[in-house]
Amino acid sequence: GQNIDQPTEMTATEGAIVQINCTYQTSGFNGLFWYQQHAGEAPTFLSYNVLDGLEEKGRFSSFLSRSKGYSYLLLKELQMKDSASYLCAPSTSGTYKYIFGTGTRLKVLA
Amino acid sequence: DSGVTQTPKHLITATGQRVTLRCSPRSGDLSVYWYQQSLDQGLQFLIQYYNGEERAKGNILERFSAQQFPDLHSELNLSSLELGDSALYFCASSVEDRGGYGYTFGSGTRLTVV
Questions:
Q1: Which of A38, A47, A83, B22 is deepest in the core (most CB within 10 A)?
Q2: Whole-number pLDDT of residue A98
Q3: Contact A98 B41 (CB under 8 A)
């Protein structure tokens, strides 16, 4: 089976940097997705990491260490609109669906 | 607009009733996935169809069933509804069967059972 662990909640200040960690245990690992979900809305795709290392996309960056079963999402220059849940989901070979972590609820304070 | 269409957006019904949720995938996508999200809970995978065939099943209750039609739209049927079935139900689609390029989610159907 799969085991995914993320902090439940985080709080940060507007303009700051926050790092959201995700650890996972799964067999047949392919890559890891990050999604953003505002309350009551659909999740939207943020990033997909297959190789080790950091991938930067504007204010958001995502890091993956396959050997450690670890990923993080880095959000820079936080804005109020970044208040949302952030979900990590490993993708694995031989399966047809993603299992999502429970998500990290990020609150950005003025 | 993500291209994945779910109807209805909101549904209020009584316990014991049956409802049907509908999903039209993004143009060109052959896979449809259904997820349930209860209040303050994570996304729970229910079932996946690829080109009309069931491909994967999660913790879907026996009271729930789904199918994907030849035009690729999918329906999720929920019967003998209980209060605990109140949740957001999301449909997602992807171009191929393993979702290697990620999902596109619909805006969801909010089901309230009273």
A1: A47
A2: 77
A3: no
